[in-house]
Amino acid sequence: MPVHYLRALTSPGRTTESNRRLGRSLAFVAGAANAGGFLAVGQYTSHMTGIVSALADHAVLGEIALVVAGLCSLLAFMVGAAVSAILINWGRRRGAHSEYAMPLMLEASLLLVFGLLGAQLEQQRMFFVPATVGLLCFIMGLQNAIITKISKAEIRTTHMTGVVTDIGIEIGKLLYWNARNDGPRDARVLANRPRLRLLGSLLGMFLLGGLAGALGFKHMGFVATVPLAGLLVLLAIVPVFDDLAALGRRF
């Protein structure tokens, strides 16, 4: 990819198109990590709805250990989002080119560690499962906060409930029959076709990532997360180099 293309993906100067390109890439990563994580520990970690619902069920059934596990997962997701916000705001206050790239580099590092150490730690199931769930929830919170701040909450990449809902809304508007007596022309119900294409592409990339993650984990094991880490590094590396170059000129 050209350097200017990669720079635009995660640099502070944002455009609608760069937000959408980054969103599609991150949706792929989230789908892959979520599907691979399910095969590793039997639990999806990209959205908190199911975890909160399960937490309530376990509380009613008196399954205290599972309640604690659910609370830890929820906390890990929130801490991931908080760390992302801290890194972005820290970089912004210092005028860093990598204000959005830093959380992605952290996410890449965590996926790399998970991919390289997962096979060794898998034998310790009592430790491995909660640690993996917590790590993946942290990563999903980290990533979701990045794209939320970048796009001003227009794009979400780690869970598809809102995306599918918005697709349904736009399809409903697309299929709506505007009769002549419905009112003024500017009051007609019209679908936002660019938004519909964006939502469809996010859903498609999440699904494609899920297929890639499931197949990769099935045939390669934990090392399947290493290419995902490499993709994140590729997305983030140019602004990081820009900061290093600026630091070198300063000294």
Question: Which key phrases capture this entry?
Answer:
0% strand, mainly alpha, globular, 251 residues
Summarize the structure.
The protein has 9 helices and no strands. By secondary structure, it is mostly helical. 37% of the residues are buried.
Largest sheet: none
- Tell me the distance between the termini: 30 Å
Order of helices and strands: HHHHHHHHH
Number of strands: 0
* Shape designation: globular
Radius of gyration using CA atoms only: 20 Å
In DSSP terms (H or I, runs of 4 or more residues), the helix count works out at 9
Share of helical residues: over 70%
Q: Give the percentage of residues in beta strands.
A: under 5%
**Overall residue-averaged pLDDT value:** 87
Low-confidence stretches are none
**Structural class computed from helices and strand pairing:** mainly alpha
Write the layout of secondary structure elements.
Elements: H1 3-10, H2 16-41, H3 49-61, H4 64-93, H5 101-121, H6 125-151, H7 161-175, H8 193-220, H9 225-250
Helix pairs in contact: 1-9, 2-6, 2-8, 2-9, 3-4, 4-6, 5-6, 5-9, 7-8
How is this structure best described in words?
It is a single chain. The longest helix has 30 residues, at 64-93. Helix 3 (49-61) packs antiparallel against helix 4 and helix 5 runs antiparallel to helix 6. The protein has nine helices and no strands. The two termini are 30 Å apart. The chain has helices spanning 3-10, 16-41, 49-61, 64-93, 101-121, 125-151, 161-175, 193-220, 225-250. The model has no long low-confidence stretch (mean pLDDT 87). It is mainly alpha-helical. Helix content is 77%, strand content 0%.
